[in-house]
Amino acid sequence: MSTTPRTQKGSATREKILRQSRKILIERGYGKLVMREVAEFCGMKLGNLQYYFPSHDALVRAIIEAETQQDLAVASRVLQKHEDPEKRLRGVVNELLTRWRGDSGIVFSTMYLLVLHDKAYRAIYNDTYARYYKLVEGVIEQVSPEQTTQERATRARLLCALIDGVAYQTDVGRRADFLARVEDQAYKIALGDLPH
Question: What is the pTM of this model?
Answer without folding.
Answer: 0.85
